[in-house]
Amino acid sequence: MPKNVDEAIGMLDSMLESRSLTANEKKASIDSIRLTFKDKKHIPAEALERLGDLYRRINLDSAISCYRKALVSSPDTKANRIKMKISALLPVKGMTREAITMREAINHDSIAADDVILYYDSGFDLYQYIVAFYPEGAERDSYLARSYSCNDSLLRYLPRESPHYKYHSAVRHFADKDYTAAIASLNDAMGRLDFGDNLFARATNLMSQCYDATGRKPETIFYLTLSAASDLAAGTKEATSLQNLSNELYNRGDVDRAYRYLMAALDNSIESGSGIRTIESARALPIIAKSFDLKDSQSHRQLIVLIGILSAAILTCVALLAFNYLSRKKMQRLQTDLANSNATKDKYITQVLALCSSYVDQLEDFNRLAVRKIKAGQVQDFYEMAESGKILQSKTEKFLAKFDEAFLSIYPGFVDKLNSLFLPDRRITPPNSKSLTPEIRILAFMRLGIDDCARIAKFLGLSVNTVYTYRNKLKSRAADRDNFEADIIKIGNISLK
User: Fold this and answer.
1) Mean pLDDT, 10 residues at a time, over the chain (497 residues)?
2) DSSP assigned state of 92
């Protein structure tokens, strides 16, 4: 075990280079179970649940699919356990409403004695994931309170000397801002856990938060590094430590390593199908753009505008591809044999790189324009160009064109399926096969799970009132108005049988 930050980072760098080997070992473990049932028509519920347990840290789509199949053939006595596991994962995909509905439908009195700890453990994870969706405020505090309630229940049922108990005891101390007691509990838990254990990674991550809350940055970085390394050792893809470590290293001035870690974290979140982590990684990407901005201080004000556009473009692209393309393709491959190649991820990354490359090219063009104008003494002219909004409008139009191309490459039949929901005389015809109208773009964002008018308006450069008006008009065209928005969400779904 490393003794300081430099040793820990050195270990993490080495593990990142060999992470594909760890991933292959995980896949081999899963394949060994799948091959046992290769020639059988029906896979037992117990085996499907076991497959779901193995998939949950590396591919959320596959895990949820296995659990859902197990749920169909599980007896009532075991169905609750499967529902607990599914509900704990759904928020990571952004499906918070379905997760809460599924959990609240579980009859507490019917829970088997052996599943009581799982009930509160899954509830703690569920509400902690939901908290990540909300900024500071009453709604976030409400879900945080629910997670702490589950945590307190765990402290009543877990064996007091178990590392699991010590971890949740630290969670309670952390919530009470008693960081000294939290650190003591975590040290006790870590002493009883193996490196590579998921609980070890969670304990070291919480330890880093304790030190961060007390302003001790070296310890914060050290334990974040241990947490990220433990995740890699376990082959875990859906994790936050690596991207948080990237932010800390950037703040410390290690920009190159921060960039490398952030790209690895983004790649992991895409592979796992984690909507939350993908968005969080995307939100961190502007720190890289900022490093380019610092190299040209004379155009600082103008570059900030492009950084904002770049951030929005990457966030949209990642959310689009992570929540839809990767999810649908991987679920489709699971339908045939629960085993897949990485072809979908390659196409996904190509789309991401295409948008990123486009915006990097535009950033370089803008830099050259800024330098040329400033050298020529045309500062006022350049300022007027930026203030007029023409540059922003031009970049936004290019982004929307790229968005249309990416979305239609993933959902080539989206417009046809959309028109099937409208009355025959109220259908929409886009100007060509490679672009969408503003109305269809609004529905495209809704299909991605982004149904907040304010967020859609920001992406499309429209007013919130315009987006609201469009949605009402579109709904009035539908043959089934009551279920129109739910039908939009179903476009492109793959049914696993």
Assistant:
1) 90 84 68 70 82 83 88 80 91 87 88 92 91 84 94 95 96 95 96 91 95 94 94 76 86 84 78 58 54 48 65 74 68 51 44 57 70 79 67 71 79 86 88 83 84 83 87 89 87 57
2) G
Question: Contact at 8 Å (CB) between 86 and 118?
Answer: no
The three-class DSSP label of residue 456 is: helix
Q: CB atoms < 10 A from the CB of 394, how many?
A: 11
Q: How far are the Cα atoms of 256, 308, 458 from residue 445, in angstroms, in the given order?
A: 34, 19, 12
Query: For residues 66-84, b (16+ Cβ closer than 10 Å) or e, as one string?
Result: bbebbbeebeeebbbbbbb
How far apart CA 249 and CA 258 sit, in angstroms, is 5
Read out DSSP for 18-30?
A: THHHHHHHHHHHH
Least Cα distance to 444 among 467, 424, 464 occurs for 467
Cα–Cα distance for residue pair 257/245, rounded to 1 Å: 10
Structural contact between residues 485 and 475, judged by C-beta atoms closer than 8 angstroms: yes
* Contact criterion met (CB below 8 Å) for 447 and 414: yes
CA 458 → CA 63, 94, 296, 318, 435, distances in Å? Answer: 34, 20, 28, 16, 19
8 A C-beta contact, residue 130 and residue 142? no
pLDDT computed for residue 40 by the predictor: 64
Structure token pair of residue 168 = 């949740």
The runs of H, that is alpha helices, within 158-197 are 163-175, 179-190
Residue 253 has, within 13 A of its CA and on its CB side, a CA count of 0
Rg (CA), the chain: 24
For residues 126 and 87, the answer to whether their CB atoms sit within 8 Å is yes
DSSP letter assigned to residue 417: H
**Tokens encoding 190:** 């870590």
> From CA 62, how far away is CA 69, in angstroms rounded?
11
Structure tokens at 312: 């929005």
Q: Which pLDDT score is estimated for 122?
A: 93
Strand-pairing partners, residue 422, are 478
Spatial separation of the C-alpha atoms in residues 62 and 274, rounded to whole Å: 12
The residue written with tokens 């949740």 in the block is: 168
How many whole angstroms separate alpha carbon 436 and alpha carbon 61? 28
CB of 55 within 8 A of CB of 63?
yes
**Global model pTM greater than 0.90:** no
Helices (H), 321-463: 326-337, 343-375, 379-388, 390-410, 414-419, 438-447, 453-460
Q: Which residues does residue 478 pair with via DSSP β-bridges, in sequence order?
A: 422
User: What are the structure tokens assigned to 100, written together?
Assistant: 């809460």
Helices of type H across 235-324 = 241-252, 255-272, 275-284, 286-294, 300-320
Q: How far apart are CA 366 and CA 180, in angstroms?
A: 50
User: How many whole angstroms separate alpha carbon 363 and alpha carbon 369?
Assistant: 10
Q: How far apart are CA 469 and CA 335, in angstroms?
A: 39
